[in-house]
Design brief:
about 200 residues, alpha+beta, 4-stranded antiparallel β-sheet, 3-stranded antiparallel β-sheet, globular
Length: about 200
């Protein structure tokens, strides 16, 4: 048992643009009947916000072939520089690849280990913390020595950095057409994640 979510992360928006863009996206979803302006925390377990927007009468347009008896949870809107990870309670990514020399740094050595190597993860964590605080942060590549901004590292699947994210709690899998339209409305590149609380 558990509660599932699907997350869309805008990986290009700036922190300054994120708030107005979030409001514009909510307004679009409300005007389409996908959401209402009502807020609730029922069935939502976001690590970042306590309440989300309640689904609207046309929410089923986001997923094909789901019965009318399905009752999805709220949609959390997360504004601000954050690290986002899918899965089930993980904090760190499995790996990071340097965009300069393409060296892959293993952070969690699955299946031998199930937790991050603290010594390997610490420089990345420090860079991410600096980015969250000030908008800039980097981690040096252990192979080429380049200090690479954390937003440029190629993280393993399911780990993304972004200043705006939308979590759909308890919704059926989002349709590819809806995801494409959502990305067009944002006007930025997005990454999708899923996970379980």
């Amino acid at each position: 048992m558990g509660d599932y979510f699907e997350r869309i992360v805008d990986v290009e928006v700036t922190a300054e643009e994120a708030g107005p863009l979030a409001e514009r996206m909510v307004e679009w979803m409300v005007s389409e009947g996908l959401l209402t302006r009502e807020m609730s925390g029922d069935g939502m377990y976001s690590r970042k916000v306590e309440e989300g927007y309640v689904p609207g009468p046309n929410w089923q347009r986001t997923a094909h072939d789901w019965g009318s008896d399905w009752i999805p949870g709220p949609v959390a809107v997360i504004v601000g520089r954050e690290s986002h990870i899918g899965g089930q309670g993980e904090i760190e990514p499995e790996s990071a690849t340097c965009p300069r020399c393409e060296t892959k740094t293993v952070i969690i050595d699955y299946p031998e280990e199930f937790e991050a190597d603290d010594e390997v993860w610490q420089p990345f964590q420090g860079g991410i913390d600096a980015w969250k605080e000030a908008g800039e942060g980097s981690a040096a590549c252990s192979t080429c020595g380049e200090a690479v901004p954390v937003t440029e590292w190629q993280w393993s699947s399911g780990f993304d950095l972004g200043a705006l994210a939308f979590e759909f709690w308890g919704w059926p899998p989002l349709d590819v057409d809806f995801l494409a339209e959502f990305g067009r409305q944002l006007g930025h590149r997005t990454e999708e994640q899923s996970g379980k609380f």
